Amino acid sequence: MKSERPIFFWLFFICLFAGSALAADPRSLDEIRVVADRMEAEAVGNKATFSGDVKASQKDIVIYAQSLTLFYSRGDDQKEQGIDRVELEGEVRILQKDRIATADKGLYLNLERKIILSGHAQVHQAGNIVKGDEIVYFIDEERSIVSSDPDSRVNVLIKPKGEDR
After folding, report:
1. Are 18 and 101 in contact (CB under 8 A)?
2. Using CA atoms, how far apart are residues 16 and 161, in angstroms rounded to an integer?
3. Domain range holding 16?
4. In a domain, 37, yes or no
C-alpha cells in the first residue's frame, strides 16, 4: 500500500462521538497504530480491510473489532483523496479515557459526517449509560439519536454528580 498514513489518519474519526476529540485538528494528529491478523488492500475496489482481532489506537483512543474496512476515493489523477466510509464489524468496542462505546457494528460516513453504532449499541461514561439498538451521532451538530426496534426500548441511566461510582 503506497500511502498508508492518509488512510490510517481517518480511523481517528470513528471515535469522534466519544467527546473531547470533537475539537481536534486532524492535521495535528499523532501516529495511528493498527494491529490485526490480516490486512487486504484492493486498489480496484478502493478499500483496505483489516480482520481478526483488530486493534487501532491513537493517543488515548483505542478501537477494537473483528473487522475494520476503509473505503476511500481517488481523484482523476488516481491519487487517494480521502475516506468515504469506515465499517467496523464484530464485537466493536471504542475506548477513550472513561468513555466506552460498544456495538455489533459501527459505520463512519465521512460526507454525511455521522457515526452509526448498531446492534446492542451502548455508551458508558462516568457511571452514565445509554443503550439502544442504534446510536447515530451527527459530528458537526454534536447531537445524537438513540433508537430501538419496536420490541425493545431505549435505556438511559444517569448518575447524579458526586455519587460513588
Report:
1. yes
2. 24
3. 4-157
4. yes
